[in-house]
Fold:
Amino acid sequence: MKLHHLLAALPAVTEVHGNTDLEISGLVADSRRVQPGYLFVAYRGVNQDGSPGGDGHRYIPDALQRGAVAVVGEQETAGWPGDLNLTYVRVPNSRLALAHLAAAWQGFPARRLRVIGVTGTDGKTTTVTLIRSILEAAGHRTGMISTVSAVIGEQEIDTGLHTTTPDALDVQAYLAQMVAAGCTYAVLEATSHGLDQDRVAACDFDAAVLTNITPEHLNYHRTFTAYREAKARLFRYLATAYRKPSLPKASILNSDDPSFEYLRTIPAERHLTYGLEGSMANHDVTAWAIELSPNGTRFIALTPAGGFPVATPLLGRFNVYNCLAAIATSVSQNLPVEAIQRGLAAVRGIAGRMEVVTLDGERPPGAPTVIVDFAHTPSALESSLTLARRLTAGRVIAVFGAAGLRDREKRPRLGEVAARLADITIITAEDPRTESLDEIMAQIAAGLERAGRREGADYYRIGDRAEAIAQAVRLARPKDLVIICGKGHERSMCFGETEVPWSDQEAARRALREASNVKREA
Structure:
């Protein structure tokens, strides 16, 4: 592809130096992956704490040595060595440029799909999964990108360790694969990091969906206002997205969320709201006659398309919200009621989301119920522990930690939530990274102590996560429920700067197996 064809996709160009009639054989943002004939995009990095990271412009000489024929970057050419012979395109924002270049390189796949984006603090993965299930029930071949994996038709692709939203090159490649597989819809989970770093720019969204916004990732965004604005970027994309025939741009908002008034001012051709609080007239989509049980959830959905019964195996009031978000999205796409009902009923469970752990499909005799959940924010932990209370006649034993190099402010609040809703809490490791695990656990413990809990009686600190899970199972009685929070679907844990293999589910199975063996021997 000619360079000037790629550059035509850029939203803004500051300066062009050199020949743009070059043939480009590849596009990368990592100089180590450059091959002869490639275009290299240099951007300034950002660390997980929001501070400036590595500057990709440092690697331009390396990219050229490896055979790059052109570079896109933000840096001025003034002051470069006089013998630096290259085609250089200066842009205001290299990350945004990368997204648009990636879309052009793949042939603008989003323009051949209907694209739905879902953002929020909690419930994104579940909502994305529900929307995809409804679309499939309506007869659409569908692709999905979530923090768990990418799904293209029947193929599931692992997107990596601790991945939020994949980078722009991968996102556009996945969209292109969806087009090639005959998909008509793509459903994308858009994280605040992914939005802030323009990883999902140029996805030409047709619908933007919000679950909720509560304080999270403030280590990166610094303020709640900046975090909320990152989420709002998904809705702002609607105004500039490629126009597709007979498909109005739709905004789907949670009218019970405090961010609603802020986000509702962002223009869209169709606005739909959902919620449960206050009068039913406050929401376009709401639920009536909600029945929550350990076996699933039932309610009557009230929508612009009429009222109809819903039954889902998913548990808890927070999943009613997720279902309503999916229903409102389906209404915006004019999907039939029957498909909505079938799609919601078909989602049996989601990895690491209130996932019951068993041995060979059954709970061992005399063992407690053990659940793995991704809850890692105070609001999500509160929802999960509240649901856990409803699912057991015994005690709730919670196992969780807090990630290192992430929001320190939430750690005591996690402890306060556990103090209110768990009978026993075991504080443990959850990706401590380069922070002191003892200090992280102490900060959580401070919240428990403020709420009147005492170490050795109501809570324990066990840094080894496997041992913490095993101890929780040993402490549990047959009617108790052990809930392991914070890791969910993740398959690694970070100590220092090293990722080590990890699975809460496997650790829980080992604990159940050991406990059942001890009981048999006794």
Notes: The chain has three domains: 3-103, 107-346, 355-521. Residues 504-521 form the longest helix (18 residues). Residues 355-521 form a domain with the Protein-Tyrosine Phosphatase; Chain A fold (CATH 3.90.190.20). The mean pLDDT is 91.
